[in-house]
Amino acid sequence: MNRELAKELKAAGFPIRVYRVGHRFFPHEKSSGWSDSSREHGVTLTNYALQDRLQDIKDGYYCPSLSDLIEACGDGLARLFIEKDIWTAESKNAEKHAVAHSAEEAVAALWFALRK
């Protein structure tokens, strides 16, 4: 997941229940103590970051896992599949669907579509 998608999810109110070790996040543009590389490529969360930098994580852009994204879609996600290198996430009636280069991006795009 890239910074822009994580930022869009946060702006849209994507539900984050628990911040977890191993997930990625992108520091907010105005947070101090983060390198330009961290801001551009993201940071993988560690126990230290969760204990000592939680406010930075909350202020930044958290990258939910695929299971978090699927859970947020609820009954709206009927299937997720890949053909060649393109992932497709479909709703039950296939009216709404999303395609992307990763499963996370496809399900995130479907989450946005289901909210409309």
The percentage of residues in β strands lies in 15-25%
Mean pLDDT: 94
Q: If helices are DSSP runs of H or I spanning 4 or more residues, what is the number of helices?
A: 6
Rg is 15 Å
Number of strands: 6
**Order of secondary-structure elements:** HEHEHHEHEEEH
- The dominant shape is elongated
Distance, first to last CA: 22 Å
Class based on secondary structure composition and strand pairing? alpha+beta
Q: Major sheet: order of its strands?
A: 2-1-3
Fraction of helical residues: 40-55%
The low-confidence runs, each spanning 5 or more residues with pLDDT under 50, are: none
What does this structure look like?
- This protein is of the alpha+beta class and 116 residues long.
- The chain folds into two domains: 3-64, no CATH class; 67-115, no CATH class.
- Helices cover 41% and strands 19% of the residues.
- The protein has six helices and six strands, in the order αβαβααβαβββα.
- The chain has helices at residues 3-11, 36-41, 47-52, 54-59, 66-73, 103-115, and strands spanning 24-26, 43-44, 61-63, 79-83, 86-90, 97-100.
- A three-stranded antiparallel beta sheet has the order 2-1-3. It has a three-stranded antiparallel beta sheet with strand order 4-5-6, covered by helices on one side.
- A hairpin with a 2-residue loop joins strand 4 and strand 5 (86-90).
- Helix 5 (66-73) packs parallel to helix 6.
Please outline the helices and strands.
Blueprint: H1 3-11, E1 24-26, H2 36-41, E2 43-44, H3 47-52, H4 54-59, E3 61-63, H5 66-73, E4 79-83, E5 86-90, E6 97-100, H6 103-115
Antiparallel strand pairs: 1-2, 1-3, 4-5, 5-6
